[in-house]
UniProtKB/TrEMBL annotation:
Belongs to the thiolase-like superfamily. Thiolase family. It comes from the Bacteria. The keyword Iron does not apply. GO terms for molecular function: acetyl-CoA C-acetyltransferase activity. This is acetyl-CoA C-acetyltransferase. Residues 2-25 form the Thiolase N-terminal domain. Its EC number is 2.3.1.9. Keywords: Acyltransferase, Transferase.
Length: 50
């Protein structure tokens, strides 16, 4: 529950994305041409007490 206000609502620049990850061999087997290659990733966060 709770209220949605201008201060806690999603901004106009918020978005979402999806990705399907599989091996090159599986993509070849299914006849799928890869559109991109994931070469690195990172994750970050801040302690909630900040």
């Amino acid at each position: 529950g709770g209220s949605v206000t201008a201060g806690n609502a999603s901004g106009i620049n918020d978005a979402a994305a999806a990705i399907i990850v599989m091996s090159k061999e599986k993509a070849d087997e299914l006849g799928i041409k890869p559109m991109a290659k994931v070469v690195s990733y990172a994750s970050g966060g801040v302690d909630p007490s900040v």
